Amino acid sequence: MRIGILNSGGDCPGLNAVIHGVVGAATELGWEVFGFRDGFEGLLSPGDSLVLRPQDTIGILKLGGTILGTTNKGHFASRIGASGVSDTPTEVIRKGKQTLDDLGIGALIVVGGDGSLKTALQLYRQGWPVIGVPKTIDNDLQATAMTFGFDSAVSTVVDGLDRLHTTAESHKRILVLEVMGRQAGWIALWGGIAGGAKVILLPEIPFDLGKVADFIRQRDASGLHSTLVVVAEGVRLPDDDMVTIDEKTGDRVRFGGVGDVVANRLQALTGKETRACTLGHLQRGGAPTALDRILGVRFGVKAVKLAEEGGFGRMVSYQSYHVDSVPIEEAVHQLRTVDPAGEMVQVARSIGICLGD
Ligand code: F6P
């Protein structure tokens, strides 16, 4: 048996752990693994792939990024977000399948987020032997309680907040940290709680900056002169949400910048010196945490098991401490966002964190 693996979409810490798991488990079965470079693009003529043997994966567990490369653009179109998928052209699908057939690939493991898994689903429906592995720092995929990469991103947020905490204290300032996550507030919520933020603004909970300013004034009056504010990049301000919109589809395609706007407004409202910091791609790079490495390896091993069982069209998923699988279509029909009434939000409220509502 020969199997293929590719990473697609944005990178995230733990991708190499999946490759490590896949190569290890496949080798134990006596199988050969082909890694395709730069996502689905590696399937197009003349094909860009390499054979992955255990000796090729030595030392990769601790590496961020992916040794295979990835892309969130290219010929295999998929639109990220809740609004659906733009189909990959038939001719592109035919060419990619030809590469698989020429190499005698019996299963293709696609490691990707929402958009890439939508593409994987389309290819499965066209007869490709596809197995999905969920990947995203945003942790916003349905049908899996956690994706690898999320814990590493949250750790970076916590490290950032720890650093901002000391300088905010010294200068009695408000410090606003903008974090990733697209339309989902998981990174902001988990990172904010773990890093000791006093205000967390989420896309899922409409907020009023006037209320945030009141909260900060009360802190000041009680002798607490610095405040850490975490802002999820996908929050919407009534008049200016700093998101790039795709002119054709109306989709929100690129996030970034809202932290500066929030900081300027809080400074104007409170009269307190305020600074903003955007963590950006620091959250995507660097070594994965131990948890993400373990999750990545487990996902890789499970993907090989699915290949062995002929579980095509399924995606590896993590539920209640177990690695299992679900049909890919169950995972991609909608994003998993923070439940405003959920336990983590309650925890934040219980410890006095202001959510601006
Ligand atoms: O989906 C992962 C993610 O890191 C988001 O949190 C962020 O908005 C986006 O990707 C950034 O994408 P790019 O690397 O294409 O700018």
Task: Looking at this protein, list some descriptive labels.
357 residues; alpha/beta; Rossmann fold; 2 domains; 7-stranded mixed β-sheet; 4-stranded parallel β-sheet; 10 helices; 18% strand
Structure description:
The chain has ten helices and 13 strands. The chain has two domains: 2-148 and 288-331, 3-Layer(aba) Sandwich (Rossmann fold), CATH 3.40.50.450; 153-285, Rossmann fold (3-Layer(aba) Sandwich). The strands form three sheets. It has a seven-stranded mixed β-sheet, sandwiched between helices. The protein has 357 residues and is an alpha/beta fold. The protein is elongated and about 70 Å long. α1 (15-28) crosses α8 (290-309) and α6 (209-221) packs across α7. The model has no long low-confidence stretch (mean pLDDT 93). α6 (209-221) links the parallel β7 and β8 (227-232). The longest helix is centred in the middle third of the chain and has 22 residues, at 150-171. The protein binds 6-O-phosphono-beta-D-fructofuranose. 6-O-phosphono-beta-D-fructofuranose (F6P) binds next to loops.
